[in-house]
Design goal:
The protein is an alpha/beta fold. About 45% of the residues lie in helices and about 20% in strands. Strands 3-13-12-11-14-15 form a six-stranded parallel beta sheet, with helices on both faces. The protein folds into three domains: about 20-45 and about 260-400, Nitrogenase molybdenum iron protein domain (Rossmann fold); about 65-255 and about 405-410, 3-Layer(aba) Sandwich (Rossmann fold), CATH 3.40.50.1980; about 420-450, no CATH class.
């Protein structure tokens, strides 16, 4: 008998009873973490990309060469789903059937989420503006939307209708003319009705039953059914993330959005139960998720460990949680709060929770994080679903150079220059010196001709 399982024999059946939760999350001091794990953690996105690059490139090349037949073949190979070419596009009947399956409370929750997302992203809009840099010289900027955008919504271990809202609503507010969506189908070849309804409510123009790397290839290069887009946005697993990075020389992408991450900075005033469940709630996303607690309180770490043992055994996605925490979970004891802040800026997590006596002070020193959640009543799920902020965020340390998804992800910023004759007379001496230095005679003539009028 396996030592990891316990059996109860009855006349009716043989039942496997779950063993008590065994927490394998690593606990250590900050010096030990820095010495043994920090460099690998900082390279977490890079290492995944390198190991997957050849495989992902092969799939992309096949989709580019073969089009729809490649999509169908990969769907059968990877997802064990056999579709026809005509079934790739979700039909109007599938949308109406989806609405019929949805209860009013769920539909209302989607609408409320959409409204909050819309309010936040609508506030990011900017009208054409000008600033006078010199007398007679005005420089401004206007925003214009992209024409065609592709959204990727993952399937796999979880379904994410929330991601549909998070990606589609800002695109529509930006004024994108056509928004398409790719998502892997369920085993029976359908799309989850909640995903379909979310897409319809958010204004998505077309949905395709394609997932994984092949979906990224289709939206980049185009196939007989799917036309290429200007930009691809949305999170995915490590394969999708690698595919987006590869195609970024051909099509725009939003950001590297791979496996979920949370880092919690806390002190002795924090609630250990809250911290324990917040670590668990990120771990349940994916076996490759990263979870960190960094605190100067040894007592807090001990209380969090105890709380996690109690809470994990109650979770539906327990196996995923335990794997993620075992591989990429860390409880780190710092000497002081400032060390926790410095480590956060090194790791650059997707999500940062701050639960301390002085959250504003900690916030003022944070430079690198995808999104920040302030105080014990602001856990990550608030931002995932309802607050209005966007949950498509940079992972793998890329928060050092990327921002989360926003209205600006779907816009182009275009500079506008207006110069009067007085203005060009003011600028001319400097232009003549610099253009002359660079040997650009036609630039000089362009200015001089206007001065001679």
């Amino acid at each position: 008998m396996s030592p990891a399982k316990f059996y109860h024999l009855s006349l009716e059946n043989l039942t496997i009873l779950k063993p008590r939760a065994k927490i394998m999350i690593k606990s250590m001091g900050i010096d030990e973490f820095n010495a043994k794990f920090l460099e690998a953690v900082k390279r977490r996105g890079e290492s995944q990309f390198e190991e997957l690059k050849a495989t992902v490139q092969g799939i992309l090349d096949t989709v580019k060469r073969d089009g729809d037949p490649a999509l169908l073949a990969y769907g059968e190979q990877f997802d064990n789903i056999k579709l026809t070419q005509a079934q790739l596009l979700v039909s109007p009947k599938e949308f109406s059937d989806a609405y019929a399956q949805l209860d009013l409370d769920t539909l209302d929750a989607l609408k409320q989420m959409k409204n909050n997302i819309a309010t936040f992203h609508e506030a990011q809009k900017r009208e054409l503006w000008y600033v006078e840099t010199r007398k007679g010289v005005s420089v401004g900027q206007l925003m214009r939307p992209l024409e065609r955008v592709g959204l990727y919504v993952p399937g796999g271990k979880a379904l994410y209708p929330s991601t549909v809202i998070m990606t589609a609503v800002p695109a529509k507010i930006a004024g994108v003319k056509e928004v398409i969506l790719c998502t892997p189908p369920l085993p029976d070849g359908s799309i989850n009705p909640l995903v379909l309804v979310a897409a319809k409510e958010a204004g998505v123009d077309a949905i395709y039953k394609v997932g994984g790397v092949q979906a990224i290839g289709a939206m980049t290069y185009g196939t007989e059914t799917i036309s290429p887009v200007n930009k691809i946005v949305g999170p995915g697993n490590k394969y999708v993330n690698a595919a987006k990075l590869i195609v970024s020389t051909t099509v725009g992408i939003d950001l590297p959005a791979g496996p979920s991450e949370v880092l919690i900075i806390a002190d002795e005033t924090a609630n250990p139960e809250f911290i324990a469940i917040d670590l668990i709630s990120q771990a349940e996303h994916d076996e490759n998720a990263y979870c960190f607690l960094v605190t100067p309180s040894r007592s807090l770490i001990e209380q969090v460990q105890a709380a996690m043992k109690r809470l994990i055994s109650k979770q539906v996605r327990r196996a995923i949680i335990e794997k993620a925490l075992k591989d990429n979970g860390y409880l780190i004891l710092s000497e002081e709060l400032s060390q926790a802040i410095d480590l956060c800026n090194e790791i650059a997590p997707e999500h940062l929770e701050i639960q301390t006596q002085n959250d504003e002070m900690v916030l003022s020193r944070i430079n690198n994080a995808g999104a920040i959640f302030m105080g014990k009543y602001s856990p990550v799920p608030v931002g995932d679903y309802a607050a209005g902020s966007n949950h498509v965020l940079p992972t793998g340390g890329s928060a050092k150079i990327y921002s989360g998804l926003s209205l600006f992800s779907f816009m182009k910023l275009i500079d506008v220059v207006k110069c009067s004759k007085v203005g060009i007379q003011t600028l001319a001496p400097w232009i003549q010196i610099l253009a002359g230095f660079e040997g650009l005679d036609a630039h000089l003539h362009s200015i001089q001709m206007r001065l001679d009028l």
